[in-house]
Amino acid sequence: MLEQMKGAIFDLDGVIVDTAKYHFLAWRSLTEELGFEFTEEHNERLKGVSRMTSLDILLEIGNLEFTEAKKLEMAGKKNRLYVEYISQLDQSELMPGVKEYLKRLRKRGVGIALGSASKNALFILDKLNIARMFDAVIDGNKVSRAKPDPEVFQTACHELGLQPRECVVFEDAQAGVAAGKAAGMQVVGIGKPEVLREADLVITGLHEL
Q1: pLDDT of residue 186
Q2: Cβ atoms within 10 A of the Cβ of 208, count?
Q3: Structural domain boundaries, residue 148
Q4: Domain contains 1
Q5: CA dihedral 155, 159, 162, 167 (to 10 degrees)
Q6: How far apart are CA 79 and CA 73, in angstroms?
């Protein structure tokens, strides 16, 4: 699978860098204002989904309802907090083995793309000093449908000029694995095999490769 691939499409959070902790802190700050507790267990439900979908899940947890205008305002506030946190990012926060594996893929002539729901993806890649290693960056600014919809991976595949069967997706979330499979691609899951059962291969991190 990995030897034959012509394109590698990576999720961002939990695969390239662990920004989940910053999402958690920003969401928790918002829920404290709203008057309910937001736990790390709750945060697991937000992995791999868009900002507005995350907010909907959050409000469901708190059993709250707001107008669309108010929800947009809250999502904007959360994002400003998140951007404050990630503005301090540097290369030291790359997940183990990421830079080495990307270099190896480039040497082999494999196309490299990012497929993330994050609207801050390019900002984060710049902070990590690896933006130049990607041939295509597909993020929440370029697609409208959140994972498990395959749109983000289909778009990345198209920008690489490849067919789905030629691409492998690297994902840490169930929704992302489902999106990769729906796009007709093979998927490497990064995390626990019992959680990422639909993946073709499960590893603990890119350092294994």
Answers
A1: 98
A2: 12
A3: 7-17+91-208
A4: no
A5: -60
A6: 10
